[in-house]
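Q: What would this chain look like folded?
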Amino acid sequence: MESKSYNTCPCPPEQPIPYACIESIDYDSGLSKGLLTSLIEFNNVGDTVKKQVNNYSYHSFTPFHTGVKIMLACEYPTGFQSVLDYYQARATGNSDSRPWIYQQNYLDYLFSFSTLGYQDYHILSGATETEYQNGQATVVKTTEYGYDMKDDKPITLTPSSVSHKNSKNEVYTQSTVFPYHDNYKNTAPYNTMITKNMLDYPIEEKTVKGTSQFVGNTRTSYEQVPNTDLILPKTLSAKYTATGSFESRITYNKYDSMGNPLYISKDDAENVVYLWSYNYQYPIAKIENANYNDVCIKIGNNKETVGKTKLDNIAIKAKPSLADSTMINNLRNQLTNAQVTTYTYKPLVGVETITDPRGVKITYRYDDFGRLQWIEDNNGKQIETYDYHYKN
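A: My prediction, written as structure tokens:
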């Protein structure tokens, strides 16, 4: 944060301490710095092949209260025209009565005043991308960004409309509706999303060509995950014609306590279950054509609640044990109509093994720098290798 001091001194002359300011200002221009204005790409002989130019619009936040400052002030007697007049009288030992009057009437008291914060910022309003061939511009694409405004300021820094114009002068515009829209802001869970400042989560996205030619429309509904404070997508639907109905594409049937999807349905037909571990960080199994209850029953030896508890315990582990991996791999034989793919990981590096529904395993090996070195097939044979060299 960059701070600048301003001496506003707005006190009227009749105030007892006209030399004191009643507000202090902290000014932050951090969001207006380091913005990419242009990007130029060159080929190996130094010719420009692509250039991107970004444009920004300026805005500032409403001043906000940052605290209170306390200072010791004094009220000086009538007869002094200014603070400087008083100090000059004291320094020169003037024989008139002003120093004595000050001695008799001097009054110390605490004076408080608010401190205000000011912040300005720039938001991306447009971009132009030009491609060159033999020094001549061959393709020019422009993009314009629009934002939902309130009191002449954007509600969120995520664009609510993005318009692309290609080299044929065809314009495609995508408009996005967010939780604060009038159609949603008073409805659960969108009113809660506003309270949580989840303002830039898209609900509806519609694309048109030109001014009105329909291209596509998607809609995401949200729900509060039971027994948590999380608000996450519930369904993703799509519409492919202007007069058609929304068709369900993905339904999120169940999440864990960390917001990871456990059970989803695709196109109201295909069911997929995900199992997690490594302290909820990585999926260790993808089970297609099964539901979550079926998986829990098999894991729990026909006891659904026991299976759910076992999976919860595996999810929180830093690494699944050999017994855990064996139990999950056995699902290939227990869920005969399902396709089970399992995964192991080298945390913070990458996937270590992938075993497909047939039980065929692919292994990934890494060097000490976390870079992929080679890939092994199910028989331990290297099928891909990678070498890294530093360029001179």
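Residues 304-316 form the longest helix (13 residues).
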